[in-house]
Amino acid sequence: MKTGKVFAEVKESICLKPGFYRLVLKASQMAKEAKPGQFAMLWPTKSQEPLLGRPISLHGIDQKKGEVSFLYQTVGRGTALLANLEAGNEIGILGPLGNGFTLQSNAKKVVLVAGGIGIAPLLPLAAALKNEGKKVELLFGAAKCDFLVGMDAFADLGCAVAVATVDGSLGQKGLATDLLKDSLAKERPGHIYACGPKPMLKAVAEIATESGIPCQISLEERMGCGFGVCMGCVCHQKDENGKEKLARVCKEGPVFEADEVIWHG
Ligand SMILES: Cc1cc2nc3c(=O)[nH]c(=O)nc-3n(C[C@H](O)[C@H](O)[C@H](O)COP(=O)(O)OP(=O)(O)OC[C@H]3O[C@@H](n4cnc5c(N)ncnc54)[C@H](O)[C@@H]3O)c2cc1C
Ligand code: FES
Prior knowledge:
The chain has 6 helices and 17 strands. It is of the alpha/beta class.
């Protein structure tokens, strides 16, 4: 269990679009250990303010350079402080944390479904899947084009990319799940992976179950410790007998088998 916060130097902090940032850290140990789908707790300052770290997914893992990167959206105090960082600053980091995605070796084609900033943990997954020679399709949805970031990196890896926006400002008008239904009608993938807002994940899980396609989803909950002790991040899961049990998103997750999650509300 990782419980030791360390400090890492900021290599780069870039605003990609208003409200969306990429942060690159020199963190060779984390780069060595990290797997797609894992996350880190980040403390934007060297002081104790804010007291709690903020969970952010690993977006880039470069073992050779000893660097990790994060893609985030500013929503409150912690992420606003992260956005102020400059190259050469030091920040607190803890990780890699949690259980990441499992690569399915028997799937020839896989589909990745991303909602908004949920695209972040899917990039290292896409890289690992492409490395295994798989056909990878990214289906990316957001409310409007201003909220679509990071998709070019998937195209650069050789993934097929389809986009949907609710207001029709880019790509197909509609939801990422509309793209998923269209994609499944054309070609059945061996596996689906998804990250995004809960209603999208629930809908993706239902589509995957109806179609009999294995699916893993990355869940988000507000977190305290990030490593399993505060019980601040529980979700509901089925045990082996189908009975409801609690699981910690930071420890048993954030990635879960979609058919094991119980959705309340
Ligand atoms: C495992 C995990 C991975 C994540 N990866 C990323 C990522 O790669 N990029 C990214 O932009 N965000 C990611 N998040 C969400 C990110 O942790 C929150 O946006 C961040 O903690 C908000 O901190 P804040 O101080 O800026 O906002 P706060 O002031 O704490 O909150 C502002 C608003 O954001 C909401 N919020 C806070 N924490 C969460 C959370 N954990 N999930 C959903 N909503 C939240 C609050 O309810 C509130 O409405 C991830 C969350 C988890 C649990
Ligand atoms: S955040 Fe503390 S147990 Fe998950």
